[in-house]
């Protein structure tokens, strides 16, 4: 296997396919570097799996069946040392509905849900949609200047009404891969306060820092696993969000039944292509993923150097995973950073809904030439303002 088996340098024109990422700026000269969707074609192994499913020519209702279930179980064991059981799984069309359902399933009116900000916006809207109180605890910096959870602040903020802690591991948008010690502290916090731990690990296979390893929260201890809802999907890693296939892993029978009860009649089944994509990704996608990580590492290094050496006024801390870079742009003194960059041809994600005013997020999961084009546009804009 060579390093250049797959091509990450070219991406076909995505207009005309209802791409959320590209249609936002349809007919505008704005390069979309927002939303967590990569501009890379899928692994040929996944396309072959989808083709095989297409060739069957019957697209009836599909329930979870042995091939994708086994692919997920094998993957959890192989990639994360997590020996899960088939009946712990629930396939879902997305993790956002799962986070919302958890708020309904595991809390009552008057309860509160805690999470650490900045974070993926649905973590912040889900408690509100369920009319539960949201407790936001800002991340802090550890002595190595890395983002981490502020355990003291969490202890101070937790209330008797708090029933859930929602963890993003690795953390979108700061790209941090939490250590065993940090995760154990989260688990112990949840045990001490009798909280259910929703562990969203959708970015777990996007760790590009080779000195880091993702640890599945539920593998920490039986006590922690018994209160954990693990949320995962092949969608971010293999660029398959349009196939709408995700899954939860819930070991505890009572929690699992509560969750399943809340799904009934509300959540649709995963479609037949979602299962086919998931099975192919986990069974056959590893060489593509390895090359993706190498490519992302290259993009990250370029981005880090460019932002820190060429663009003053943007604070960008080192990250270890994901293709979503988090910039503090306060020093630039822009009234509306998103508008400013859009006016200058670059579409970024607004940090506000993540709980990060005066922050923007840039998606570097794209061909390197496109990333450079975006960075040069940002540089020109800042120099000419
Ligand atoms: C932490 C996190 N969870 C969930 C999702 C999306 O989940 P889904 O597309 O399965 O609803 C994202 C997407 O970026 C994410 O970053």
Uncertain runs are: none
Give the strand line-up of the largest sheet.
2-10-9-8-7-3-4
CATH architecture of the largest domain: 3-Layer(aba) Sandwich
Order of helices and strands: HEHHEHEHEEEHEHEHEHEHHHEHEEEH
Fraction in helix: 25-40%
The CATH homologous superfamily of the largest domain is called Type I PLP-dependent aspartate aminotransferase-like (Major domain)
For the report, how would you describe the main beta sheet? 7 strands, mixed
- How large a portion of the residues is in β-strands, by DSSP E? 15-25%
Provide the structure class: alpha/beta
Q: Overall mean pLDDT score?
A: 97
CATH C-level class of the largest domain? Alpha Beta
Any idea of the CATH topology of the largest domain? Aspartate Aminotransferase, domain 2
Number of helices: 14
CA distance, first residue to last residue: 48 Å
Number of domains: 2
Alpha carbon gyration radius: 21 Å
Small molecules held by this entry: pyridoxal-5'-phosphate
The number of strands is 14
Structural account:
The structure is a single chain. The chain is an alpha/beta fold. It has 2 domains: 20-44 and 286-384, Aspartate Aminotransferase, domain 1; 48-284, Aspartate Aminotransferase, domain 2. 40% of the residues lie in helices and 15% in strands. The longest helix has 25 residues, at 286-310. Bound molecules: pyridoxal-5'-phosphate. Pyridoxal-5'-phosphate binds at residues 36, 94-96, 120, 168, 172, 200, 202, 233, 235, 241, 246.
Which terms would index this structure?
binds pyridoxal-5'-phosphate, Aspartate Aminotransferase, domain 1, Aspartate Aminotransferase, domain 2, 14 strands, 40% helix, globular, 3-stranded antiparallel sheet, 2 domains, single chain, 7-stranded mixed sheet, 385 residues, alpha/beta
